[in-house]
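User: These chains co-purify. Model them together.
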Amino acid sequence: MHSKTLADIARGLENKEFSSVEITENYLQRIKQFDPEINSFITTTADQALAQAKQADKKRAENNATLLSGVPIAHKDIFCTEGVKTSCASKMLDNFISPYNATVIEKCESAGLVMLGKTNMDEFAMGSSNETSYYGPVKNPHNSNCVPGGSSGGSAAAVAAGLAPAATGTDTGGSIRQPAAFCGITGLKPTYGRISRWGMIAFASSLDQAGPMTQNAEDAALLMNVMSGFDPKDSTSSEKPTEDYTANLNASLQGKKIGLPKQFFTQGLNADIEQSVRDALSVYEKLGATLVEIDLPNADLATPAYYVIAPAECSSNLSRFDGVRFGHRCENPVDLEDLYKRSRAEGFGEEVKRRILIGTYVLSAGFYDAYYLQAQKARRLIKDDYLKAFEQVDIIAGPTTPSTAFALNNQHKDPVTMYLNDIYTIAVNLAGLPALSIPCGISNDMPVGLQLIGNYFAESELLNAGHQFQQNTDWHKQALAKSMR
Amino acid sequence: MNWETVIGLEVHVQLATKSKIFSGSSTAFGAEANTQASLIDLGMPGTLPVFNEEALRMAVKFGLATHSSISHRSAFDRKNYFYPDSPKGYQTTQLHEAIVNNGYVDVPLEDGGHKRINILRAHLEEDAGKSLHEDFHGFTGIDLNRAGTPLIEVVSEPEMSNAKEAVAYLRVIHSIIRYLEISDGNMAEGSMRCDANVSVRPVGQKELGTRTELKNINSFRFVERAINTEVERQIDLIESGGKVIQATRLYDSNKNETRPMRSKEEANDYRYFPCPDLLPIEIDESYVQTIRESLPELPWEKAARFQGDYQLSEYDAQILVTSHELANYFEACVKASQAEAKLCANWISGALLGALNKENLDIGQSPINPEQLGGLIARIADNTISGKIAKTVFEALWEGAKNADEVIEKQGLKQVTDSGAIQSLVEDVIAQNPEQVANYRAADETKRKKMFGFFVGQIMKASKGKANPKQVNQLLVEVLDKP
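Assistant: Joint model of the two components:
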């Protein structure tokens, strides 16, 4: 029962093979049983989930159900959830019960999805290993000595282990795609502005984007139908109408041009990963696509630009956590400054503090032009590279990560090595493009991710490419078979 | 040494939008603390701002009224600093691309001339909440009702050279925002707030002296006093060998002194950067044009019209256009008086404004409406009453009488213009004061002039003020000069 996809569950509910309460109880039971090992959830919301499941069963009995009514899901603990602790995996928000729902949560609720709980993550989404969480690291279900990736590591691990059929994630520099690759699942980072950021606790506002983390591309399309759309509460959300993301899944790939950036296949890329990616690309050739080498000349600017822009925005976004209105407040402050300093010193973890410091530095008088403005110029160059490439090709493909999941406690001590995990994913956020990661191989017993990058609002095209791959290979199933508990 | 003062003002104007600049909360003043603060105003995690376009419309109006250029693209920046009444840890403002730039206003001076004061910029931003330091026994209360109220900050060039000019400039800004109905301009409630940058330099020196910024000046009177106090302090300091330190200073109106708040050395580095949650504001010329066409008649335009249409002096016109309420009062009064514009102007700027000031009322609260005052003025014009009697009628109207005609009728104040009656009054007074008459006739021209008033006074007294003064004068001259 626990290896069912969203589509399977929806069918099963429709055919009355099981009820929403039954399948919800099954997942809650599995979380209880297996999550102590994996640590993918910060909060489980059993009572609420069962109430929602009952409601969904009632609707279905009344023939009032929509496609996903009663289907369970887990949400990254970055989405504000009314009446539920929303911690962002930080001690700072360990006591924060959100008074309102994020738009993503609202949309999932309206679609009848049942929330199992809130998943673990890197603190404030800052990290690539899920080791910066105040609630402890998440274990990779493929190998509990390895990290699940981050920041949406809890969501990825929960789906991979079969503790939730699907989950939401957020991606600022690779935080959906990298853990999806590490855990052997499918993850989509949509175009910036496709999904509302309202209620999603901000890390770097110009880069943050929510997306689905699922067992396959079809499920990702089903969740995109729920999550996406213009939101008047988010000025940066796109007014472009949404589409049925499942409509195009079975389209032919005949004649599609897939661009391979030469900068993605250089030294630094693990040979096994390169092989898996090349094998995947030959599958696409068999499906009628042609491969074209492309040039992204400014690709090497992405990581440095990102580590200026993201910390700059984070240093400002995290200023509201000051111990005054919500969140952690230090004991017995002697004055206002003491309140600020100790509340923040105690409430934030090391990586968050590092990024606040970097961000504060790069925005400081005298440094702004040299860092922030330069980084914005680099961002423009990167975006132009991609726009130019998309004049030539339909999709850009390459590895999601330079290596498979690394060992826990391994890279934590050297932040720069950690930052390099995101070299293939970061540029996509800087450009605001959509990108999909799907499993494309297994190397040394760990899954390998293929990244497909699309033009603006080409989610449908990416999901089509992902689905076609999954119709013709079984890497996604092999990976899940290994990680399911 | 002779000193020259240089003043620039930063005026914060709260815009009279119904809801806040980035949230749907009400902006009404005086509600119970924190009842008008939404998730956004509280800076809750995950919340996002949505720009209220009404604030843009108002800022553009202000820009057009001050001959400024309107940016077709402007953008919001974040100004980062920690303070409990700044819930997000930053203020959303416009640093790099302001909506309004490079305008000016012509400020009337006391000598009747004008001085052009250039406006560097006016940008949109959000107001902070309020810290309440009283009543919390060692704690500070925070009221976020005001947080997120839209403001424009109007930054002048440092072109005012004394406190009076600064106040005159402030009054022009005040009258513009009132005319445009973009703010109530109430300084006591903080709808309009003024910071003054003040420096002094020896006359003839080109470079500016070190300036201080005076904060928290909440009335026109205090602006003048604060600047004068600070100028004196700076001059005394320099003349006694000291140096002005660039600092923010607080004006204490109780002690009439300025004292340092914080010096710039320990000032924040605000780390401005473009706000990633808000899109740049893009407007086209037709948007600006529509607003331009909707602008009301502005004070200086009204003043020019009053001088032309009503033949008023520039001085009178300036007084009457101080506020559009006053100007409207004047025009209604003229209409009711059957076009006695000059008399109306005199009565409004004299008796009426005097009485209102005395009772601390503004024109909207006047107990005498323009129709009543116009009715009174019509009776002066048609000689029914004298100017002196008119004051009695004015007082009666102030106390609640219905109209001038009724007061004149009831109190029998109609002017005596019957020359027979006046003749006998004159003769009576001459007969009763033989000594004074003899003295008068013996005196020379200069002395006579002085003594003449005595007889006029006696006659007016005898007539209970109702005798037509012109006729009294005429007849009296005849009788006294031709024995």
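Chain A has a mean pLDDT of 96.
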